[in-house]
Each structure stands twice: as structure tokens, then as C-alpha cells.
Amino acid sequence: MSERLVEMLSAEDIQARVKELGAEITQAYKDKPLVLVVVLKGSFIFAADLCRHIDLPLRVDFLGVRSYGEGTETSGVVQITQDLSKPIAGEHVLIVEDIVDTGLTIAHLMDLFRTRGPKSVNVCALLHKPARARVSVKVDYLGFTIEDKFVVGYGLDFAERHRNLPYIGIVERD
Ligand code: IMP
């Protein structure tokens, strides 16, 4: 079986949108300190670019989450593989996600974080696939809405491959 990558969003389109999102977030928080919670692993590239367009006092923390295994369908069980390094009580938290698909991961994280007493919890996602939603989640800052295709690149993987692509593409097989 041969595999081909078809570009869906170019590196330039992504960079332009990430810059806009950074400006939007900067405006919205108006100098309030922010904690960016980067959901690993898929969001590491998006978060690295996004934080450089946010002009606020911020700290960055990382959360490891697994819901997929090796396939392209979520198992529906969200497992925390690495917790935050510091408490978030009294902080404004912005969860940075690569993609909201079924919504189960974000819904789980919102529930979890609310038990920790933050001042606010919002969500910034690069991509959203509304066709696949299993629970309704509010994405406060969204890069792109996409159709129901499994995408890779710019941090997103298929069985750990393709994270290093500078663009977002669809894997096609013949
Ligand atoms: P959700 O819990 O179904 O919303 O899925 C969220 C997580 O599933 C994302 O953070 C990704 O890691 C992964 N995911 C969902 N759709 C895709 C995709 O099209 N490509 C790669 N990973 C995906």
C-alpha cells in the first residue's frame, strides 16, 4: 500500500492565522497573567509558535494526554500521562490544543481543571472537526474549522509519524 500526503493548510496559512490568534488572545486578556497549558504531544509546535505572538506575562506548562493508541479512532478514554508541574488555583488558564475532534479530551480537561480553582479556563485550538463532535465544547479561540479527514503535520501525528511537517496534510493510501 503506498501513502501520499495531500496538503490541506499551507505553512503560510497556518503562520498567518497563528499570528492573528496571538493578537486576539493578547487583546482579550489585557495584561492579565496567563498560564498556557500545552496538551502534549500534538500541540507542541502550535504552542511554540502561538506563545511568541502573545504579548502578556505568561508561563507555560505541559499536560500529557492519551486517548488514541495507534489508530485513528479515539478510545473514548482520556488518560493523563503527565500532570501539570504547578497548581493553577487563582490563575487564568488557556488550554492549547492541536485539534478538537470528538471533544472528549477538552471536556475531560475542563472538568478536571475546574476542580483546581483557576480564575478562568478557556480553550485555544488550531483545528476543529465539528462533524465528529460527541460532546459539545466551546472553543474560545479557533484557527480553522476542517472537514472530517484525519490530518497530520504541524505537530499532529499518525502513529507518531509526520509531526515534523511544516504544513497540515491528509494521508491518502492507494
Ligand atoms: P478528541 O478528544 O476526540 O477531541 O481528540 C483530541 C485529540 O485526538 C487531539 O488532541 C489529537 O491528538 C487527536 N486527533 C484527533 N483528530 C486527529 C487528526 O485528524 N489527526 C491527528 N490527531 C488527531
Describe this structure in words.
The structure is a single chain. With 174 residues, this protein is of the alpha/beta class. The protein contains three helices and nine strands. The strands form two sheets. It has a six-stranded mixed beta sheet, sandwiched between helices. Strands 1-9-8 form a three-stranded antiparallel beta sheet. Helix 2 (44-51) links the parallel strand 2 (34-40) and strand 3 (58-66). Helix 1 packs across helix 2 (44-51). It is globular and about 50 Å long. 30% of the residues are buried. The model has no long low-confidence stretch (mean pLDDT 94). The chain binds inosinic acid. Inosinic acid binds next to strand 5, helix 3 and strand 8.
Show the helix and strand layout:
Blueprint: E1 3-9, H1 11-29, E2 34-40, H2 44-51, E3 58-66, E4 79-82, E5 92-100, H3 104-114, E6 120-128, E7 141-145, E8 151-152, E9 168-173
Parallel strand pairs: 2-3, 2-5, 5-6, 6-7
Antiparallel strand pairs: 1-9, 3-4, 8-9
Helix pairs in contact: 1-2
Bound molecules: inosinic acid.
| Low-confidence region ranges | none
The strand order across the widest sheet is 4-3-2-5-6-7
Name the hetero compounds present: inosinic acid
Question: Could you say which structural class the secondary elements and strand pairing correspond to?
Answer: alpha/beta
Biggest pleated-sheet summary: 6 strands, mixed
Rg, rounded, reads 16 Å
Mean residue pLDDT: 94
How many β strands by DSSP?
A: 9
